[in-house]
Amino acid sequence: MGNFVNWTASKWQLTEMSAVERPRAELCRIWGEDPMDILLKKPMPLSEALLTCRKLKGELAVADSPERAADLGGKFVARLGKEFMDGTLINRFPCHGKVTLELVLLGSGFWAGYSDEKTEGTFVNVLTGESLLSRFDPFAAGEPNGYRYENCLTIWPNKAMGLIEGGFRGKQSELTQEFRITHIIYVIVCIASGWYDYMCGLGQMAFCHVKRVPHFNLRGLKLGSPYNFDAKYSLEVSDATKGDFFFDGYVDSILKNIDNGSNWVLRLLSNNSVELRTTVTGLPIGTHEFTYENGIQSTDLNINACNYDNEYNCANGPCVPMSKRY
Asked: What residues make up the domain containing 245?
């Protein structure tokens, strides 16, 4: 079937060409080559956060030192904290001269990566089993206080300044119900900070630490389908300050969140009318039902970061070594 060319041994000559120097970043996708912490903005139980980090080919970021805790806390505030700079409110409710409003509206801190579910009162690293107090003691005043009901640790990185109106200084729990309803935003901002024990099954945000951001596969499209979406995608950042991500196809596709909520659309860049939609809380990794633009037909697609040379993709997203597949 024709002649084969030895690309290594053959000699080539270019004519009528010119050379232009270009940075590598303009020619190759190098975002993601370095380790990074990916913020999961959807509050979720600790078990779900651990699973989601596995789907991203990483692990939960654990605040295992004062320096690491400060690093994650700084990233959390930088990505989610919108400063509410109304002078009147600042004068009435001093809190380092600023009020970070969005943190309150989101109603969440982030998982620290420690639990005492196995032995009450002994918080250990959920990845390594190492005791927290053998390294440092980060608890806010009066914490932990949840006993057998609150077994996982969460971090609220705001500074605890206390509320000054009416001479009040204390914890949110000491406020009257009437005062709490009227001023709940400002109380939480200025007082709810530090490390707390929390119910493991309730929602908190989390950081996933990845050694390098993985690339993703799209599986499930039938051969000969007119929906010629890319099979390979890179995870890209649309807003580095907030940790908003989308999946960028290698050639002609994009998968992105369209309402800052749970609705995702898979679309051809060359033809915006060709699209599939799905509703997923969090990142759409794993198998999900995608609906065609006619709103009637649907198909199941799987998005995963598996290496098919030695890994098998599970329906819920993680990758399993072929040697462990039953």
From this structure: 214-324
